[in-house]
Here is the input.
Amino acid sequence: MTRLKGKVAIITGGGTGIGLGAARRFVEEGAFVYLFGRRQAPLDAAVEELGGQASAVAGSVTDPADLDRLYDAVREGHGRLDILFANAGTGSVAPLGELTRAQYDQAFDVNVRGTIDTVQKGLPLMQAGGSIILTGSTTGVMGTPGFSLYSATKAAVRNLARSWALDLRGTGIRVNVLSPGPTRTELAGEVVGIEAIEALGAGTPIGRIGEPAEIGAVAAFLASDDSSFMTGGEVFADGGLAQV
Here is the structure.
């Protein structure tokens, strides 16, 4: 497929997991991808794998100066942005009664404020036909024990998309949420543990966890003109976890 031929994309949290899965698919479909993440080594490895169709900038979505460097690179390299996949995120497990201010600050700084800053700083580079994709989660619509702070941030992201779709009325720029279920990613393994993720996946109608490539395929759909009549929506790629 070449649905994204000639498109310029940014993927935050792009060095591993879902971000890398999406980057592979975007490049396969003809896009040039700028990867943004905190760790240089995974970014360099991803760029080498993706060949001449990718570049990387290391930094954090919580640092405005880092985001400015990212968008300066896009401006100098291509002068425009067609696809913005705001995928950077974090979380930690703690039940009610054990929640800390530090956990709150980290989750909301990265998942909510980081998403807002990422999109606002990228918007001047976008034009009609542009697609903004925000990473949500099944936890944004479900009760999840020990995961209330993360869940709350993803519910916030969902409502940002609803409101931004109205703010972007008439611009030709669309914004949608991609909400994965249990997926085999480095972050999931670190925060929850791969065995717990696999157990969660086993309980879905599909009967297994998702792979980053499967989520990346849905991201490519939302990035492409095939989803041209979609904005303000949420697409679940969750094995049915939050659907039944």
